[in-house]
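name: query_chain
kind: protein
chains: 1
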Amino acid sequence: MKKPFLFFFAGAMLMALAGCSSSYVMTTKSGQTIVTNGKPQLDKETGMTSYVDQDGNERQINSNDVAQLIKN
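structure:
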């Protein structure tokens, strides 16, 4: 009786942890605050930072406009 419960509980915990992603807060030089889902990615060739916003939309910002990036 305990083994099926343990496997179920362990599987549920793995799924819960796999679904968690860290959010980051970017502050622009103009003072705008952007909360992202997951870590923003820098494209060195284009100079753009790509991120996913809170609504799940993929967006880009010029990396020169980013003043600060903090893990939330």
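note: The chain has a mean pLDDT of 84.
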